Amino acid sequence: MGLYSGLALVSHLIRTVVFAAVVAIAVVLLVDWLARTRRLNPFHPLARGVRRVVDPMLLPIERRIVRAGGLPSSAPIWALVGAVILGVILVTAIDWLLGSIVTATLALSSGPMGLFYLLVRITFGVLQLALLIVVIVSWLPISPFSPWVRWAFALTEPILRPLRNMLPTFGALDISPLVAYFALSLLESAFLRL
User: Fold this and answer.
1) Which stretch, 10-19, 93-102, 114-123, has highest mean pLDDT?
2) DSSP string, the chain
3) What is the pTM of this model?
């Protein structure tokens, strides 16, 4: 079995495990939601067992929902949405990592130009990822000084600040990350043609 077929097998196994985990979480959260909304007898042994295990984990989500004016019974639904999003992010990140291993293997076996290709791809990939993170964080109540995202702002601000000064304003809409993303894509393809 070659490297590529082995990595494809690993990717398939990870996708299957993540899908099975999300389905299992969905079933458990469905039972919790049914017990919370009284569609299932809350004193049934299954409902009591699930709520005993799940409710302490849902407590932080429930607090945020109540603070935002929502119903505590919707906490399992929001937890399921979070689990699905986390599963998609996990599968995407692992596929990216496995694809990077394949690219690195091919690039390193191609000599100096392959190494140049690899370094250009990694550099521009990290910058584009940082731009994506900056955009997503701007939609959420997360501080740009948070240690989780500070690196993304440190990498992108030298690119975005001059663009913000040059581009016209569209009210509250900031199109500089979009322009920067496309400019980085053009620069990357220009470097790869050298």
Assistant:
1) 10-19
2) --HHHHHHHHHHHHHHHHHHHHHHHHHHHHHHHHHHTTSS-TTSHHHHHHHHHHHHHHHHHHHHHHHTT--GGGHHHHHHHHHHHHHHHHHHHHHHHHHHHHHHHHHHTT-HHHHHHHHHHHHHHHHHHHHHHHHHHHHTT--TTSTTTHHHHHHHHHHHHHHHHHSPPBTTB--HHHHHHHHHHHHHHHHHT-
3) 0.70
Give the pLDDT confidence of 73-112 residue by residue, as tens digits: 999 999 999 999 889 888 888 888 888 888 888 888 888 8
Q: How many residues does the chain have?
A: 194
Place of tokens 């620069």: 187
